[in-house]
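Input structure tokens:
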């Protein structure tokens, strides 16, 4: 019995010694430096005449409207120029959220889509980025095809969620998301 108690004490002492040694030899950095942080300062829609609006309004007539565009003003608040603070944006994704809560993709809301992007956002930079927010092909698919054909009497209201993706120069992934209200309507 005495041998078992003494073995248990040795095991506890060895475990404590090992734990203290592991903690004191930690080679991981104790201070982390944040990478780039992007903000979408403003996201606006452009009408057919190129006029900016805080709501993307698309009137559907007898023909399919062209791609609806928007401009995201992206801000990088970092003050110093390091590899962690310069961001190269390479793509974006647009998804729909309807105001009435309907959410079946391809039936209630258009399919989300990804598109390429090529923008560099340096420290303290304010960069306007023009992009497609609604593709013309979306008007050949539900639910927008019903509006385009004049079969839908209810206007489609919702929000476009736009996420920009990229990397800083040290390879860390960076993304930022903005939203803009959208109103699609048919006037015969």
């Amino acid at each position: 019995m005495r041998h078992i108690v003494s073995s248990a004490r040795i095991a506890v002492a060895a475990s404590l010694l090992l734990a203290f040694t592991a903690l004191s030899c930690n080679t991981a950095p104790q201070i982390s430096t944040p990478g780039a942080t992007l903000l979408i300062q403003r996201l606006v829609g452009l009408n057919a005449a190129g006029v900016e609006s805080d709501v993307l309004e698309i009137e559907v007539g007898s023909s399919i409207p062209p791609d609806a565009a928007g401009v995201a003003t992206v801000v990088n608040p970092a003050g110093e120029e390091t590899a962690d603070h310069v961001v190269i944006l390479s793509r974006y994704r647009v998804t729909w959220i309807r105001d009435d809560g309907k959410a079946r993709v391809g039936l209630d809301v258009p399919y989300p889509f990804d598109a390429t992007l090529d923008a560099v956002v340096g420290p303290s930079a304010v960069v306007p980025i023009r992009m497609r927010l609604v593709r013309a092909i979306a008007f050949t698919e539900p639910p927008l095809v019903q509006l385009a054909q004049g079969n839908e009497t209810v206007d489609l209201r919702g929000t476009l969620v736009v996420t920009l993706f990229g990397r800083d120069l040290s390879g860390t992934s960076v993304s930022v998301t903005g939203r803009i209200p959208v109103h699609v309507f048919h006037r015969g």
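Residues 65 and 136 are 6 Å apart (CA to CA). The first helix runs from residue 2 to 24.
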